[in-house]
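Feature request, filed as a ticket because there's no other form

It would be nice if the structure record came with a short human-readable summary line next to the tokens. Right now we just get the raw output. Example of a typical job, pasted below so the devs can see what we mean:
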Amino acid sequence: MQSISHREFEQKSLENCTQIANLLSGLPLAITQMGGIIRRRHLSLEDFLAYYLEDAKKLHEMQVPDQSTNYKQTIASVALSKSVLTLLQVLSYLDPDRIPEKLLLAEGQCVPLPHYPKTRISYFNVQTELIESSLVS
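Raw output as currently delivered:
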């Protein structure tokens, strides 16, 4: 957060960045986008914290222009369904380069998680949502 926001040398920088990261649940996309907002709006970390605590919703809906990517999502638009989060949690335990999709499909009915996609159709819908949100490829 310090380097993303370019606020490494502010007083209480590490403490404020830690607080911001905690408010954002440590989510890399959220940290990156909020760091971009801090930088582009020339906010101090303390000013950002006050702004965030007053109106987090507005900040989550703010789009951060980035010349290096074509990523157009905001934090608010990347809200994930419970099924997507559940599948993402399962994927996080597996080798990202070697996940046999048939395992995820065939074992869906055996997974004792309430929101795990149980049918092929629901699995493919969840998979599409993950791909569209750029969380998997």
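Something like this underneath would help us a lot:
The chain has seven helices and no strands.
The first helix runs from residue 2 to 5.
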